[in-house]
Amino acid sequence: MSAAVIDGKQVAAQVLEEVGREVEQLKAAGVTPGLAVVLVGDDPASQVYTSNKERTARELGMHSVLYRLSATSTQAEVADLVRTLNRDPAIHGILVQSPLPKGLDMDAVVRLIDPLKDVDGFHPENVGRLWTGQDGLVPCTPAGVMRLLEAYGVDPKGKHAVVVGRSNIVGKPMAALLLARHATVTICHSRTPDLAETCRRADILVAAVGKLQMITGEYVKPGAVVIDVGINPVPGFKKRIRGDVDFDSAAEVAGLITPVPGGVGPMTIAMLMANAVKAARMQTGKS
Ligand code: NDP
């Protein structure tokens, strides 16, 4: 292996420490940042994600509430809860865990969230702000990737960044953030021909595909920075997860690489906490 390995756990711990200090400052100024996490239904993975988010916020000293709605909830019931939380002055951040049970419209729910409380950064107003260079709340996973790059001294300016994946939650905001930092950005997807060839031109390669170990060393330019957003189960192993990048072969070629687990994953929840504090600041005018 020639690549240096990015320690996402360590950078996430630093972010959480900073957020903890900011929570203390805000509390001293009379504001307790409040995060509401909404879980609809009983998807086991979503239960784990939401309780981790609620617990982390609580451990950082925030006012943290987990709302559990039954899988049979109606669109109107979910909407009512969001409207109530929008009005609640003790709540600065609202997160509705995806996916919602079948029959419920997530986009419609996201549109109802007050953009100032939209800690996932998925509301069209925040998406528009991101693409037009205005301050707002930015999706947590791509924000976490930017923080990792910064922590390891990688300046995207003038670099060619290739993002594989164009989802609204990872690929597109990732591309927007890299563009904002002056990278030349190529976005690839399932209809991109010659994917490996395009990826081999990347100084910074971000994989957000959802395909187990698809990006091998053949896709990597020597010395490139490789960021693996993927979280994929490994068939035959109950608890094992691996990324979209084939770590062993990619690490032979890359200069710097994230592992899975322990790379981008821990950053997502840390950046969510940072967004909750930012949301509290924006709503209360405390800087
Ligand atoms: P989506 O399924 O929404 O998007 C996947 C993207 O990959 C799509 O744009 C799709 O193209 C593209 N794609 C699929 N197959 C190929 C292929 N063979 N070649 C090129 N492109 C392809 O996934 P997400 O963006 O939500 O998530 C991506 C990965 O990141 C998943 O493994 C997910 O678990 C993980 N993830 C990790 C997080 C973390 O905290 N670390 C947070 C969120 C996600 P098209 O648009 O054409 O269909």
TrEMBL record:
<keyword id="KW-0368">Histidine biosynthesis</keyword>
<dbReference type="InterPro" id="IPR020867">
    <property type="entry name" value="THF_DH/CycHdrlase_CS"/>
</dbReference>
<keyword id="KW-0378">Hydrolase</keyword>
<dbReference type="GO" id="GO:0004477">
    <property type="term" value="F:methenyltetrahydrofolate cyclohydrolase activity"/>
</dbReference>
<dbReference type="InterPro" id="IPR000672">
    <property type="entry name" value="THF_DH/CycHdrlase"/>
</dbReference>
<keyword id="KW-0028">Amino-acid biosynthesis</keyword>
<dbReference type="InterPro" id="IPR036291">
    <property type="entry name" value="NAD(P)-bd_dom_sf"/>
</dbReference>
<keyword id="KW-0511">Multifunctional enzyme</keyword>
<keyword id="KW-0554">One-carbon metabolism</keyword>
<dbReference type="Pfam" id="PF00763">
    <property type="entry name" value="THF_DHG_CYH"/>
</dbReference>
<feature type="binding site">
    <location>
        <begin position="165"/>
        <end position="167"/>
    </location>
    <ligand>
        <name>NADP(+)</name>
    </ligand>
</feature>
<comment type="subunit">
    <text>Homodimer.</text>
</comment>
<comment type="similarity">
    <text>Belongs to the tetrahydrofolate dehydrogenase/cyclohydrolase family.</text>
</comment>
<feature type="binding site">
    <location>
        <position position="231"/>
    </location>
    <ligand>
        <name>NADP(+)</name>
    </ligand>
</feature>
<comment type="pathway">
    <text>One-carbon metabolism; tetrahydrofolate interconversion.</text>
</comment>
<keyword id="KW-0521">NADP</keyword>
<keyword id="KW-0486">Methionine biosynthesis</keyword>
<dbReference type="InterPro" id="IPR046346">
    <property type="entry name" value="Aminoacid_DH-like_N_sf"/>
</dbReference>
<dbReference type="GO" id="GO:0004488">
    <property type="term" value="F:methylenetetrahydrofolate dehydrogenase (NADP+) activity"/>
</dbReference>
<feature type="domain" description="Tetrahydrofolate dehydrogenase/cyclohydrolase NAD(P)-binding">
    <location>
        <begin position="139"/>
        <end position="283"/>
    </location>
</feature>
<keyword id="KW-0560">Oxidoreductase</keyword>
<protein>
    <recommendedName>
        <fullName>Bifunctional protein FolD</fullName>
        <ecNumber>1.5.1.5</ecNumber>
        <ecNumber>3.5.4.9</ecNumber>
    </recommendedName>
</protein>
<keyword id="KW-0658">Purine biosynthesis</keyword>
<dbReference type="Pfam" id="PF02882">
    <property type="entry name" value="THF_DHG_CYH_C"/>
</dbReference>
<dbReference type="InterPro" id="IPR020631">
    <property type="entry name" value="THF_DH/CycHdrlase_NAD-bd_dom"/>
</dbReference>
<dbReference type="InterPro" id="IPR020630">
    <property type="entry name" value="THF_DH/CycHdrlase_cat_dom"/>
</dbReference>
<feature type="domain" description="Tetrahydrofolate dehydrogenase/cyclohydrolase catalytic">
    <location>
        <begin position="6"/>
        <end position="120"/>
    </location>
</feature>
<comment type="function">
    <text>Catalyzes the oxidation of 5,10-methylenetetrahydrofolate to 5,10-methenyltetrahydrofolate and then the hydrolysis of 5,10-methenyltetrahydrofolate to 10-formyltetrahydrofolate.</text>
</comment>
